[in-house]
Write a structure and sequence with these properties.
The protein has helices at residues 16-26, 48-53, 71-85, and strands at residues 2-7, 32-37, 42-44, 61-67. It is an alpha+beta fold and 86 residues long.
């Protein structure tokens, strides 16, 4: 298992368009990805509505857990994706 914590810098947080891109990215991985907000609520990385339900705003952190498959490699790619989009 690999994980990282990311503080969202996008002024509108994780909203529909980038969340959709995130789901599309995660679906290409052979790993299971789980996102957890500051309140401890979790979402499956392949489910758009669950990610939207986390309500992550600018300045809030999200913890991303990657399990199975090439967890380390996928975690690194996902961290780069977050830095470029959120």
């Amino acid at each position: 298992m690999a994980q990282f914590k990311y503080v969202v810098t996008d002024p509108v947080g994780i909203h529909a368009r980038p969340a959709g891109q995130l789901v599309k990215e995660i679906k290409t991985y052979d790993s299971t990805v789980t996102l957890t907000n500051e309140a401890g609520k979790s979402a499956d990385g392949k489910k758009l509505m669950q990610i939207m339900g986390l309500g992550i705003k600018q300045g809030q952190s999200v913890t991303v857990n990657v399990e199975g498959g090439d967890a380390e490699g996928n975690c690194a790619k996902l961290k780069a994706f977050f830095e470029a989009n959120f």
